[in-house]
Amino acid sequence: MKMKNTIKTTLIFTLFAILSCKKSKQQPAPIDPKQEEKPTIPKEQKNLIPIEISSSGITITFKYIENTGLLSEVNLSTGRRFLITNTNNMPVKLELFPVEDRAYYVEYRNADNRISRANQFTSNGKNSTPADKFQMSYDGYGQLTNIKRYLVDNSLASEKQLSYTEEGLLKEITTVERDYTTTDDYSYDVHKGVFKNVKYLQILLIEMKLDAITFGANTLLQYSCPSNPALNKTYAYTYNDDGYPIKQTIKSAGSTQVFDIKYAEIK
Hints:
- This protein is mainly beta.
- 12% of the residues lie in helices and 49% in strands.
């Protein structure tokens, strides 16, 4: 009888232990709140456009159509001023105002939402005289690949052929003129360019020709001119938290220029 009671008691304790084990497996230990992984919230990407570039020798300010990357005005501390007229979200005219009077202006011709032609005119403020003409061509990605400059008599004065890397970065510009051909080399990195969000800058720079302004979605690291190494330039940058350059250092032929850059945000 005692043996039966002992066996019965043992079975009860064994069954209790098994049930307790199963119960404990069904209730995992609570997670320490301090150890919980918080979801990573990606940083909001800002679309910035430069409004001022300045160095010890010059300050360049930029104005835009509100909340766009379309330039409407570029002012230099030297007194030069570029005024850009836009229609249907594209530039149609660029005027240069020196200190004394307007010197010339350019009218752009658009086709398929691209600028295909540019006509220069000299001006004394009252009368205009036709000058050079430009014809532009693009590849299937919308990248400018060819610029032809014609004189007033419609003779071809020069031609620029632009080539790009597989990533779409400018690699070479070959200039063909009547007496010679030169090729300039360009090298870019993957960082955001100062003028990444400025539209049609590559076309506008044909007239503006400002060393402090470099076009492209990325930052220019090096410009090489094999035919004249004295023109070679290297570029270095300091970036803000949004990945845009706020300081640009240009070195060439023993000289160094440092430009500070200020931005506004396209909302």
